[in-house]
Every structure is written in C-alpha cells, then in structure tokens.
Amino acid sequence: MYLATMSNVENPTEKTLAELGVHTPEEVTTLFVELREKANKEQRWIDKPDKFEQFRVKWIGRKSGILAQVTENWLKPADVDLKRIVGQVLNEFRSHLQRLVDQAQQGLDVRAGQAADVRERVDLSLPGVIRPIGSHHLIRQVFQQIEDIFVSIGFSVVEGPEIETPYYNFEALNIPEFHPVRDDMDTFYLELPKGAAVPLLLRTHTSPMQIRTMEKQKPPVRVIVPGKVYRRDNPDATHSFVFHQVEGLAVDTDITFCDFTGTIDYFVKQFFGPSVKTRFRPSYFPFTEPSVEFDVSCPFCGGSGTAAGGGTCSKCKGAAWIELFGAGMVDPAVYGFVNYDAKKVSGFAFGIGIDRLAMLKYGIDDIQVFFQNDVRFLRQFP
Ligand code: PHE
C-alpha cells in the first residue's frame, strides 16, 4: 500500500488528502503524527525572539500558517467518512501547536530574565557612585547665625515679598515721592500691563517689612526679616544688584536708646566674638530719628589699625573701625502710617547687610563669589 508521508511529499499540507492518497483514519493519524514531530523539532531550535516569531507565523499564522492550510486543504475537502476523524485530530493538533508556542514564549522569557540577572548582578567589589552632598550656602549660614542670636533674645523671624509697591518701599517709610534719598534707591520697576493699579518694584531694602509687620500686629513687636534686596548697582568687588539684608524692628511702650545700642552691641559681640567693640555715629534715614551708623572695631587687627606683621591693616586701612550697618530709633512719623500711637510707643530698627558681614567675618574680598556658585568657593564652607 502507498502511504503518503511528509518525507516523500513536499509540502503535503498544500495538497488535499485525496491528492496525497490518504483514505483511512490510520493514514490520517499518521500524517498528523509526522506533522507534530516536525513542529516539535523546529520548536526546540527557538532561542531568539525572531526565531520564535518565524515559528509562530509558519505554524499558526492566520493566513498561510500550516494549521490554516490543514484546515483549508485537508479538512474542508475531506470525504464525509474521513471528515470527523480529520476534525478531531486537527483539534488536538491545534492545541498541541498552541502549547508549543506558549512553551517557546516562556522559554524566551526565562532566558531574557537570566540575561537581565547577569547584567544587573550587583558587584559589591566595584567602587560606588559618589554623589556629592550639598551644603548651605555661606549667606544662608550667616542668616542662620544671625537668626539664632536674635531668636535667643526674644525676636521672631518673618519674611516678606521681594516685589513691593512704592507705598511700602518708600512712602510709608516716610520717603515721599520726590525725596532725594530715592535717588540712591532708583531701582528695578516691573513692566506691568497698561492700566495696572500701582507700579511694582523689586524692594531696595527689607525695611518695607517694618510697615507690613506693624500693620498686622499691635506692640510689642520684635522681629527680624532676612531676605534679598535689589538695587541698580554696577557689579564690582563690593557691589551687586542683588544682595541680602536682615531687618530688625523692636517696638514697645518703653524702649529706650540704651536698649537699642545694648541690643546691637550684644549682637555684634555674639557674631564676631567678645573682644570686638562697637561704636555709633550720627547718620540719616528718613524712617529713623535719630539715625546712626554702627561700626565695629576691626576684627582683623584687633582695632589697632596695624597689621600683625607691622604696617597698616589692609582690612580697615588703618582706621581701626569698620562701618557695619545703619539703624536708629523709629521715626514717630512712621507710626502714623500704621496707626500706632506715637505718644505711647517707641522702638528701634536696623538693617544689616549680610554679604558685607559675611565678607568681614570670613575674610572674603569679593562679593561676586557669593553669586558665582563656584564649588571651589562653596566647599570651603561646608
Ligand atoms: N533700610 C536701610 C538701608 O537699606 C537700612 C536701615 C534699616 C536703616 C533700618 C535704619 C533702620 O540702607
């Protein structure tokens, strides 16, 4: 008897059973067994996704996969007496192919997982990744030192907006529109849409927070205000268009000029060390009366004006004193703007330039280094 097998017929699934000379159920079963073995063999060679895909398309591809051909060529045209058995074996064959595909897919997944494990294996002998840890900027550190000193004597810390109205930056501080001190502070106004209600500017000092604080609370007031301020200054070793201040304000029913100078002296000694001395000289600010300028004895030459190795001290230029900051007793006119009774309250205010203070304390001779953020500078102040 002639029995069709795949070994002697090319592409048997492209022919019908009749063309293959298959007429009995046994012959049908044999045909499928051979097909199954071929599929098994090919499946074992799958080691990569592209081979898997080839296998899948070849065997169960919807259009021209072998499974589709078998249905088309073997099942559909089969004689009535063979159709049942072909249908049955074809169903088993279909499940078998699906199993082969699933197994192959799993095999690939496992391989991929193993490869990833190898790739991602942690080698504890390798040097680690060194991530540099940042630290507080020197200006922030100095803010902190100042806050600590004032908080320890009963002040609290408040902050305010860097964009101000002329009312808070000037008028309420007793600086009317055409007052000459505005020239010093001629500054950055914001470009606003036409019809904006009030002009806005970058604050030129932290003093507007004196007003905002007193508007909000009744005496007693004891606050300090750290923050950035802006002026139209050309950058050089001692000037920058942005710098930092700490404003201070104390208002109560019985604050005297002695409380004022005592507080400043205490602060300066805490900040620079107990051996420095302070002094004040008359000065002028529209919102303080009297106004003073505080000096500290030069911390570099011990207030002698002479350098350690002889000659003039380069820091104070032989003057023995270094100008520190402006301050004064709150001008009674200012109380009028915040509804405080000028007859009942008194107080003092000061405005410390932080950059300058930091430069003095740490011997830094160029204010620009604070803004350049060169890590070689920053690392010196961890
Ligand atoms: N606001 C002043 C300035 O920036 C400093 C100051 C503050 C003076 C408080 C007196 C009182 O120059």
Features:
alpha+beta, two-stranded antiparallel sheet, BirA Bifunctional Protein, domain 2, 382 residues, 2 domains, single chain
Describe, in plain words, how this protein is organized in 3D.
The chain has 382 residues and is of the alpha+beta class. The longest helix has 41 residues, at 80-120. It folds into 2 domains: 12-120, no CATH class; 138-378, Bira Bifunctional Protein, Domain 2 (BirA Bifunctional Protein, domain 2). The protein is built from 14 helices and 9 strands. The model has no long low-confidence stretch (mean pLDDT 92). It is elongated and about 125 Å long. It binds phenylalanine. Phenylalanine binds at residues 205, 207, 285, 288, 326-328, 349-351.
CATH top level of the largest domain is: Alpha Beta
Structural domain count? 2
CA gyration radius, whole angstroms: 44 Å
The CATH superfamily label of the largest domain reads: Bira Bifunctional Protein, Domain 2
Helices and strands, in order, run as HHHHHHEEHHEHEEHEEEHEHHH
Total strand segments: 9
How is the largest sheet built, in terms of strand order?
1-4-5-9-8-7-6
Judging from the principal axes of the Cα atoms, what is the shape?
elongated
Q: What about the largest sheet?
A: 7 strands, mixed
- Secondary-structure content class: alpha+beta
Cα end-to-end separation: 96 Å
Fraction of helical residues: 40-55%
Q: Which percent band covers the strand fraction?
A: 15-25%
- Small-molecule components bound: phenylalanine
**CATH fold-type name of the largest domain:** BirA Bifunctional Protein, domain 2
The number of distinct helices, counting runs of at least 4 residues, comes to 14
> What average pLDDT do the residues reach?
92
| Proper CATH architecture of the largest domain | 2-Layer Sandwich
Q: Low-confidence segments, ≥5 residues, pLDDT <50? A: none
